[in-house]
Amino acid sequence: MQLGLDEWIAGGISGHDIFHRQDGPVDGRPVTLLHGFPTSSHDWAPIVPPLVESGCRVTTLDLLGFGASAKPVRHDYRITEQASIVEALWQRLGIGSTALVAHDYGVSVAQELLHRDASRITAAAFLNGGLYPDLHRPTRVQKLLHSPLGAVVQHLATERMYRKSLREILGRPVNDELLHDMWLATTMGEGKRVQHRLLHYIDERREHADRWRTALEQYPGPMLFVWGPADPVSGGHVLPRLRERLPHATITVLDEPPATGHYPQLENPDAVAAALTEFLSTGGSGS
Predict the structure, then answer these.
(1) How far is 210 from 231, CA to CA, in rounded Å?
(2) Beta-carbon count within 10 A of 238 CB
(3) Other CB atoms closer than 10 Å to residue 117's CB: what's the count?
(4) Strand order in the sheet with 13-15
């Protein structure tokens, strides 16, 4: 059974103002999951149990400004800082090498980590995200939040508006309880006051485009893409680029009707779990 948001947070550790949790056997194959904008590590709740069952030691965290982690209101949020936070958490938990799975915002954090030390990442898997900034198509709400009006617009958001915006990028239906948990993860604490600042990642992706592209395309380890083609943000239009630039990678397209959209792990968790467990068992994880 998938844990609700309250149960998910209760099972974690909110140390150093960064919420994180570990699931699975202590001696299991290490894998770190990175979530997307604007939600939290709870997005991975449907995927963690099958990964644990397959023998993985799963580490999840809420990045700074997200979920149950600290959300400083006047902070200059940076992908590069988020990568440093992940590295610090690895050090604190005694994690050396690890497989890495990332979605949405998290793919940029993963690319920065690959740039810093690709040898530490034993296998890399990506779900829908802006790996190439020229292919990223932000939603109308994201454009507004990223505009000079963002600081005002974020305060006007309601749960109804939030659900509507999410449903526009989903390919498959998800239940209202799950959307409610996503809203709570986004808005808890000072969440409504930091959304426009978190969206500075759009600029940072352009700033570091070359280095993050190089880190991705030159990564020598096993690589998997689990992709929802019905996603208008980073969907089917990204696949030709991935096939062209990364011919050695495994690409799993979740196009069985109804095609999956922007949140594969929530819309189509069984297919995502199957793809990841097979990849991580054959692609290798560190110790």
Answers:
(1) 24
(2) 22
(3) 10
(4) 13-15, 18-23, 56-61, 29-34, 98-103, 121-127, 223-227, 250-253
The length of the chain is 287
Q: Report the alpha-carbon distance of residue 245 to residue 254 in Å, rounded.
A: 20
Nearest of 186, 2, 39, 18 to residue 127 by alpha carbon: 39
Q: 48: which 2 tokens?
A: 């963690």
CA atoms of 111 and 118, how far apart (whole Å): 9
> At what angle are helices 79-93 and 105-117 packed, to 10 degrees?
70
Nearest by Cα to 4 from 42, 47, 48, 44: 42
Q: Residue 226 in contact with residue 127, Cβ under 8 Å? A: yes
* Predicted pLDDT at 286: 42
- Could you give all domains of the chain from N- to C-terminal order, each with its CATH number? 5-283 (3.40.50.1820)
DSSP the chain: -PPPHHHHHHTSEEETTEEEEEES-TTSEEEEEE--SSS-GGGGTTTHHHHHHTTEEEEEEPPTTSTTS---TT----HHHHHHHHHHHHHHHT--SEEEEEETHHHHHHHHHHHHHGGGEEEEEEES--SSGGG----HHHHHHHSTTHHHHHHH--HHHHHHHHHTT-SS---HHHHHHHHHHHHTTTGGGTHHHHTTHHHHHHHTHHHHHHHHHT--S-EEEEE-TT-TTTSGGGHHHHHHH-TTSEEEE--SSSPP-S-HHHHSHHHHHHHHHHHHHHH----
pLDDT in tens, 26-70: 999 999 999 999 999 999 999 999 999 999 999 999 999 999 999
- Could you report the per-residue pLDDT of 75-86, keeping only the tens digit for each? 999 999 999 999
Closest CA to 64 of 5, 114, 106: 106
